[in-house]
Amino acid sequence: MRCSHFVVTDLFLAIVGFVSLVSLDSPARAQSTSWTLPATALEEKSPLMPTAEVLKKGKALFGSNCRRCHGPEGKGDGPDGVPETPPADLTLSSRAAANPEGVVFYKVWNGRSKPTMPAFKSQLTKNDVWLIVEYVKTLRN
After folding, report:
1. Furthest-apart CA atoms within the chain: distance in Å
2. How far, in Å, CA of 125 to CA of 90, rounded?
3. Residue 22: is its pLDDT beyond 70?
4. How confident is the model at residue 47 (pLDDT cuts 50, 70, 90)?
5. Angle at Cα 103 formed by Cα 12 and Cα 137, nearest 5°?
6. Which residues have CB under 8 Å from 118's CB, separation 6+?
7. Mean of pLDDT over the chain
8. Do the Cβ atoms of 133 and 46 come closer than 8 Å?
9. Is the dihedral of CA 99, 105, 108, 112 positive or negative?
10. What is the percent of the chain where pLDDT is above 90?
């Protein structure tokens, strides 16, 4: 009986490892969060410098596109947010490691269906999204 436990455990770990590799190495949807992220998202860096002008433009774009769900300060408390699956609190610095700038870019660009996050690739330019990313980085505590 003990031997079969190890076989099942090893099989489970092999499957988990394979699924993790597939999620990271292909532009597939991540399993639990359904984000569409390319393998390069974790390392991708903003092409913009966080100058006063960039942050001003990013704040304006955030206000017109993100604030209604994420709230005026990015705390996930906007009036259009769904209470059952509230928008992310963008002020939590603890989320920064899992959401570096490239990941934030693709989350905004591609969105997801559950929980709902609209895709902005048909409404904003890539540069606009990078402006928002630069502004959002300033919200982290």
Report:
1. 66
2. 21
3. no
4. very high
5. 135
6. 111
7. 82
8. yes
9. negative
10. 68
Task: Please name which of 97, 92, 100, 84 lies closest in space to residue 139, comparing C-alpha atoms.
Answer: 92
Q: Cβ contacts of residue 131 below 8 Å, gap of 6+?
A: 48, 54, 57, 58, 61
For 57-115, the pLDDT digits (tens) are: 999 999 999 999 999 999 999 999 998 999 999 999 999 989 999 999 999 999 999 88
All residues at 6 or more sequence positions from 79 whose CB lies less than 8 Å from its CB, including other chains: 68
Q: How far apart are CA 72 and CA 65, in angstroms?
A: 11
DSSP 83: T
52 token code pair: 């006063």
- For residues 61 and 18, what is the distance between their CA atoms, to the nearest angstrom? 39
Nearest to 60 by CA among 125, 135, 121, 126: 135
| C-beta neighbour count of 3 within 10 angstroms | 7
For residue 29, give the DSSP letter: B
Q: Write down the pLDDT at residue 33.
A: 62
Instruction: Give the residue carrying structure tokens 């017109």.
Output: 64
Backbone angles phi, psi at 131, to 5 degrees: -60, -45
